[in-house]
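Input (structure):
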C-alpha cells in the first residue's frame, strides 16, 4: 500500500495497519510528516506509564498537552521489592515526593477508560488509600487491572520501621496527602476512598480468597465495594484459590450473602490443578453470580500433573449454573487420568451438560497444556458450538483441535459434525524427547488401540 492510499483509507483500516507496529516503529513512522503524526499520535500515546516526567509533559502547558485526549490507558506502579534493596531514608523521601504528583494528576486524563496498578503487598496503608483515592478521581474510568507483588524483604521491614522519621521530613502538603503520621489501618480503608463503580476488574495475585458476605469491602486488597452492583467482568490470575483451611463452607443467610447482580463474565487463569476445589468454585459462582453467562477456567497444567478425583464429580458443579452460554474448561481424562477424552466422548459430555439442564449452552471449549515438555509454550484446545435443527434435535458442531502459542489470539478452524475420532495434535512426541512417566501408560494404551 502506498503512503497516499494509506492516508486516504478509512480510520478503521489505518488503525488495523498501525496496530501491527511496535511503539518504536510508530514513533519512527510519525516522524515522516505532519499528516503521519496526526494519524499515529493517538495510537502512540493511547497507553501511558505514569511518571513525574510523563505527567508533566501532558499537563496544561506541557510539550504533549494537546495530545492528552489521546490517552486511553494508564500504567501506575509503586516500588517493587527489588527497589527496596539498599534503600535509604533519602531514597524513600524521593520516592514519595515523586509518587505524590503522579497520583494527584491522574484526574487530568479525562478520556482514560482503563488503568493498570502494580503495588507491593505491604505498601503503607496511608499511601495505599491515597493511591486509590487518586485513581477514583479519573472521570471516565471503567476498567482496572490490579497486580499485587508479594514476598518478603528485610529492607522492607526496615522501611516500615522508619515511617515516622520519614514522615517528619516531608513537606506539609505531602503530609496532608498521606494522612496521620502513624501506620494504622484504622481510618485508612482503601475501599472508603475508592468510590468509582467499575465494569471490569482484572486481579493478578498469588493467593485469592473469594468474598462471600455483603460486608466485604476488598477482593485480595482490591477495593471492590463500590463495584458490586456495576461489575460485568471479573478476571483473576492466581496460583491458589479458596484455600480449604480457611474457606467458609457454612451456608449463609440471604441477608448477609454477597451478590454480584450484573456480573456476566468470569475468567480464571494460570490456576494449577490441586490448588483449588471445583465444587467450591462452581458453588461460589452459582451462589454469588446469578447472571453469569460466560466462564473461562484456564488451568495451568501439563502432562506431568498429578490429579486426584473423578471427572464426573468435579464438573457436576457446572450444572448449578444452568444459565451459562459459553464455557472454557479443562480437557477431561480417564483411566486414572492418564488418557484424554476423544471427540466422541467429549460430544457425550457436552450432551450430558445440556441434558442436565444447561439449555442455554451455546459454546464449549476443552483446553489443556501440552503433552510434551518441549511444547511448554503452547496449549491445545478443541471447541464446539451447540444448536438445534428445525426438528428440535440437538446438533453439536466441532472444530478440529488446534494448538496455539500462549498469548496468541484464537482463530476459526473448519467444522464438521463430530463424527471423527478427535485424535490429539501431539499424539507423538517431538524428536529426541523422552516420554514422561505419567504418560507411559497412556502411550502404551494408545498404541494398542
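Output (sequence):
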Amino acid at each position: 500500500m502506498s503512503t497516499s492510499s494509506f492516508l486516504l483509507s478509512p480510520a478503521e483500516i489505518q488503525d488495523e495497519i498501525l496496530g501491527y507496529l511496535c511503539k518504536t516503529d510508530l514513533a519512527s513512522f510519525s516522524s515522516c510528516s505532519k499528516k503521519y503524526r496526526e494519524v499515529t499520535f493517538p495510537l502512540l500515546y493511547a497507553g501511558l506509564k505514569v511518571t513525574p516526567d510523563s505527567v508533566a509533559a501532558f499537563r496544561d502547558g506541557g510539550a504533549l498537552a494537546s495530545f492528552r485526549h489521546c490517552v486511553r490507558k494508564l500504567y501506575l506502579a509503586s516500588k517493587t521489592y527489588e527497589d527496596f534493596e539498599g534503600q535509604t531514608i533519602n531514597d524513600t523521601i524521593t520516592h514519595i515526593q515523586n509518587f505524590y504528583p503522579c497520583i494527584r494528576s491522574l484526574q487530568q486524563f479525562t478520556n482514560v477508560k482503563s488503568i493498570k496498578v502494580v503495588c507491593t503487598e505491604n505498601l503503607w496503608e496511608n499511601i495505599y488509600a491515597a493511591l486509590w483515592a487518586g485513581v477514583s478521581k479519573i472521570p471516565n474510568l471503567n476498567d482496572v487491572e490490579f497486580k499485587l507483588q508479594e514476598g518478603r524483604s528485610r529492607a522492607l521491614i526496615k522501611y516500615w520501621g522508619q515511617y515516622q522519621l520519614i514522615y517528619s521530613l516531608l513537606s506539609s502538603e505531602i503530609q496532608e496527602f498521606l494522612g496521620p503520621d502513624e501506620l494504622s489501618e484504622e481510618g485508612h480503608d482503601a475501599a472508603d476512598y475508592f468510590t468509582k463503580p467499575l465494569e471490569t476488574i482484572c486481579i493478578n495475585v498469588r493467593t485469592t480468597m473469594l468474598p462471600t458476605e455483603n460486608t466485604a469491602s476488598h477482593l485480595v486488597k482490591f477495593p471492590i465495594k463500590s463495584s458490586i452492583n456495576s461489575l460485568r467482568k471479573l478476571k483473576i490470575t492466581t496460583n491458589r484459590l479458596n484455600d480449604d483451611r480457611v474457606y467458609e463452607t457454612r451456608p449463609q443467610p440471604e441477608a448477609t450473602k454477597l451478590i454480584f447482580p450484573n456480573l456476566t463474565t468470569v475468567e480464571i487463569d494460570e490456576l494449577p490443578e490441586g490448588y483449588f476445589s471445583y465444587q467450591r468454585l462452581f458453588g461460589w459462582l452459582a451462589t454469588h453470580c446469578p447472571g453469569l453467562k460466560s466462564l473461562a477456567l484456564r488451568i495451568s497444567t501439563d502432562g506431568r500433573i498429578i490429579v486426584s478425583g473423578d471427572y464426573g464429580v468435579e464438573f457436576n458443579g457446572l450444572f448449578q449454573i444452568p444459565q451459562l452460554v459459553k464455557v472454557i474448561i479443562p480437557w477431561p481424562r480417564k483411566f486414572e487420568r492418564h488418557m484424554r477424552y476423544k471427540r466422541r466422548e467429549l460430544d457425550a459430555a457436552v450432551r450430558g451438560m445440556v441434558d442436565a439442564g444447561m439449555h442455554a449452552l451455546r459454546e464449549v471449549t476443552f483446553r489443556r497444556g501440552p503433552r510434551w515438555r518441549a511444547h511448554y509454550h503452547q496449549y491445545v484446545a478443541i471447541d464446539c458450538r451447540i444448536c438445534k435443527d428445525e426438528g428440535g434435535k440437538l446438533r453439536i458442531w466441532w472444530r478440529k483441535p488446534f494448538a496455539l502459542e500462549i498469548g496468541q489470539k484464537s482463530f476459526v478452524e473448519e467444522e464438521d459434525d463430530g463424527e471423527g475420532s478427535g485424535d490429539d495434535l501431539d499424539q507423538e512426541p517431538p524428536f529426541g524427547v523422552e516420554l514422561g512417566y505419567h504418560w507411559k501408560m497412556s502411550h502404551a494404551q494408545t498404541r494398542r488401540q
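Notes: Residues 243-249, 302-310, 408-423, 433-449 have pLDDT under 50 and may be disordered. The chain is about 30% helix and 20% strand.
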